[in-house]
Amino acid sequence: MLYKQVVTGAFGYSGKYIAQRLLAAGEKVCTLTNSSGRENSFGGNIEVRPLNFNNSAQLVESLSGTRVLYNTYWVRFNHKDFTHQEAVTNTFKLFAAAKEAGVQRVVHVSITNPRLDSPLEYFKGKAEIEKELIQSGLSYCILRPAVLFGKEDILINNIAWALRRLPVFGVFGDGGYGLQPIYVDDLAQLAIQHAQESKNEIIDAIGPETFTYRELATTIGDIIGRRRPIIGVPPWMGYMTGWLLGKIVGDVLITREEIQGLMANLLCTRSSPTGSTRLTDWAKRNADRLGTRYANELFRRQNREAAYDERNG
């Protein structure tokens, strides 16, 4: 009997919100994770299984009896410990295991504007994964968020962190490229809603507000009471500044590819909003804590015991 809902990375970011909603609905939830010892809020309410891509038999066993697989697994940038290409290969293995295990439906979190011919490895890799899922024969819903925001997020929090500490804020070029942030719990609601469907779907998961990057920085600065001069800088200078700050905080603050993706308007679409929570409203409710600590991506990946939202900057 099919009864289980499986979420990759329920102790992480978006996966946590999906798991919370599933548990609230009375579902039996299992997570596949490399962070089985990570502090989390679920106690013993979630079955925990290893996300071992090199053990296909174990993956199939873990996925047996699964109605929906919610896949949030990915890596943000290339690193000596993980790469985009490795993430693509691993996800192919996950889909193959899901197929063999008889999973009824896959809800997969992708990115806006993926392209197989993209010069950017992030967007190309996401497109390759989408193609693999589409051709797998599995029932699927592909969600394409642009930027997520929520208390555990990286981008919005670290913009606020920089605004709290730096006398000016630099945007790459003129800062006129767009972003359409979606609240992480709205994404979770969308995922669970479309898990109930049977038709194959691809959905742009975007919030109700659209900002230019310059407008986003100005808006966040106003909300947290740290309005700074916003200056345009050459992309190479912005990257080097981010590289230096990254060295100071022990993280990868920004990559060249992320700058290129931003400036190419790849985090913006012409689709209608699918989320309802406004970033400005959420930021106002959380203004006292937004950006007070740096959100460290590498720390989260390398420390598999601390809660995902805990990091002293």
Biggest sheet strand order reads 3-2-1-4-5-6-11
Query: What are the low-pLDDT stretches, counting only 5+ consecutive residues below 50?
Result: none
Order of helices and strands: EHEEHEHEHEEHEEEHEEHEHHHH
Radius of gyration from the alpha-carbon trace, in angstroms: 19 Å
Termini separation: 47 Å
The share of residues in extended strands comes to: 15-25%
User: Helix proportion of residues, in percent?
Assistant: 25-40%
Quote the average pLDDT: 94
The number of distinct β-strands equals: 13
List keywords for this structure.
313 residues, two-stranded parallel sheet, globular, 39% helix, seven-stranded parallel β-sheet, alpha/beta
Summarize, please.
The chain has 313 residues and is α/β, with parallel strands linked by helices.
Topology:
Layout lengths: L3 E5 L5 H11 L3 E6 L13 E4 L5 H8 L2 E6 L12 H18 L3 E5 L11 H15 L3 E7 L2 E2 L5 H11 L3 E4 L5 E2 L2 E2 H12 L5 E5 L5 E2 H12 L5 E4 L1 H15 L6 H8 L15 H7 L11 H6 L11
Parallel strand pairs: 1-2, 1-4, 2-3, 4-5, 5-6, 6-11, 7-10, 8-13
Antiparallel strand pairs: 9-12
